[in-house]
User: Which sequence fits this backbone?
């Protein structure tokens, strides 16, 4: 099997609009307007607003970033920079459960690549993608601060350490029913 260079996997989506999200739908715009009106005068408002948008709408797409940049009168690159720096933010809707595979040094050396390949095989999607049933999203992440438990995986807000490829299905089954594969 040819090894993939997982360090080349972007930790955030590329700067291209998602085809399935070309515009802000009116309901999203109304929610954004309410959030912006409530927080725009506060110090550090951009971070607060982005947190609220992520929590309320579930993602912050390119059109939404454009809209926020216009409303706050800041460059789009500033908004984009924050959204792509913090893995909490996402530009596309995530599945019900976010599975974050640590690609820090200890986890990478400890077998993160094999874990990812097994999860991809079980769920039928690649790293960075969401399953068609919207139950799981597979993502890379930076060090989770649990290097002694490498290779580590964070599912939602739960840390699972000392994983092995043949055990990853057990972790996934804690969250959703998965047929035998
Ligand atoms: S390198 Fe994975 S938890 Fe630190």
Assistant:
């Amino acid at each position: 099997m040819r090894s993939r260079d997982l360090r080349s996997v972007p930790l955030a989506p590329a700067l291209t609009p998602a085809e399935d999200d070309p515009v802000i739908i009116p309901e999203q715009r109304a929610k954004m307007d309410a959030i912006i009106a409530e927080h725009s005068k506060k110090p550090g408002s951009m971070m607060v607003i982005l947190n609220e948008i992520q929590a309320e709408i579930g993602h912050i797409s390119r059109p939404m970033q454009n809209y926020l940049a216009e409303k706050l009168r800041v460059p789009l690159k500033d908004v984009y920079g924050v959204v792509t720096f913090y893995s909490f933010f996402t530009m596309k809707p995530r599945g019900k459960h976010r599975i974050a595979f640590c690609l820090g040094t200890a986890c990478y050396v400890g077998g993160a690549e094999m874990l990812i390949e097994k999860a991809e095989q079980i769920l039928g999607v690649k790293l960075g993608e969401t399953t068609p049933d919207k139950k799981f999203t597979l993502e890379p992440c930076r060090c989770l601060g649990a290097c002694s438990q490498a290779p580590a995986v964070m599912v939602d807000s739960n840390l699972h350490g000392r994983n092995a490829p043949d055990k990853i299905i057990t972790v996934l089954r804690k969250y959703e029913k998965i047929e035998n594969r």
DSSP finds seven helices and four strands in the chain.
